[in-house]
Amino acid sequence: AAHLTALPRRPTAFVDSAPERWGARVDGLPVLSPDEALAASAPLVVVASMYADDIGRALRARGVTDFVVAP
């Protein structure tokens, strides 16, 4: 989680598409569903996954174009 400090804003949550992870905590931050996260005002979405291409397509399909893919 140390790499999270390099982001332009401090993360407030993690997002996962797996319902069994919703409500859990990672590094002290809650794990939200995609719907919960996208309901936030002006979310900063950082994609950090080996499935970044798929996640990017899903975000664009929901109208989210302002996101970053972490290296």
Classification by helices and strands: alpha/beta
Mean pLDDT: 83
Largest sheet entry: 3 strands, mixed
Rg over alpha carbons: 12 Å
The succession of helices and strands, N to C, reads: EEEHEHE
Estimated share of beta-strand residues: 15-25%
User: pLDDT below 50 for ≥5 consecutive residues: which ranges?
Assistant: none
User: Terminal Cα separation, in Å?
Assistant: 14 Å
- Number of β-strand runs: 5
Q: How many helices does DSSP assign?
A: 2
Residue share in helix: 10-25%
Q: What characteristic shape results from the CA principal axes?
A: globular
Physical arrangement of strands within the biggest beta sheet: 1-3-2
Compose a concise summary of this entry:
This protein has 71 residues and is an alpha/beta fold. It has helices at residues 34-38, 52-61; strands spanning 14-15, 25-26, 29-32, 45-47, 67-69. The chain contains 2 helices and 5 strands.
